[in-house]
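User: I'm new to structure prediction. If I give you an amino acid sequence, what do you actually give back? Let's try with this one:
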Amino acid sequence: MARRMIKKWMPNHEKIRQTRALKVFGSLLHDANLWHLNRRSASGAFAVGLFCAFIPVPFQMLLAAAGAILFRVNLPLSVGLVWISNPITMPPLFYFCYEVGRAVLSAPAHPFNFELSWDWLIYSIETIGPAFLLGCFIMGTLSSLVSYIAIRVMWRVSVVRAWEARQHRNRECD
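Assistant: Good question. You get back a string of structure tokens that encode the predicted 3D arrangement of the chain. For your 174 residues, that looks like this:
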């Protein structure tokens, strides 16, 4: 069940291999483990993809691909999960990360007035930067761990249910 649901949304691995941005990984993309979908690769891909989704950089997909190659987990799934933090969800997601970091550091709230200048950027990095980055790290780690465990448990439950249903069908046939 879980495998069929995930596989339905995954793109063709040949199409992904030919993506120009992923050419930097060269022959590493030919590892069969990057394309298999099993309990280990799916749960690992969720962990890598969700962790990278909370990294506030513009090249999250490349980081997710590198993480998938490093940990030998499903590449398309880890790269696709990065899009949880898309231009629509980023403001509330990263604001929540900032609030988490601010709460952990017990830092005071700073007013946020956007200005397109170097002075504003330096000021923001000094004032809200530490809380924001700590919050991103905490939320990335937490979402990574929770998703890893949840996918493993859901996959196991799905396999056990399928096995029990098969046993039940075999008993009825006898």
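You can read the tokens as a compact description of the fold. Here is one thing that stands out. The CA atoms of residues 164 and 170 lie 10 Å apart.
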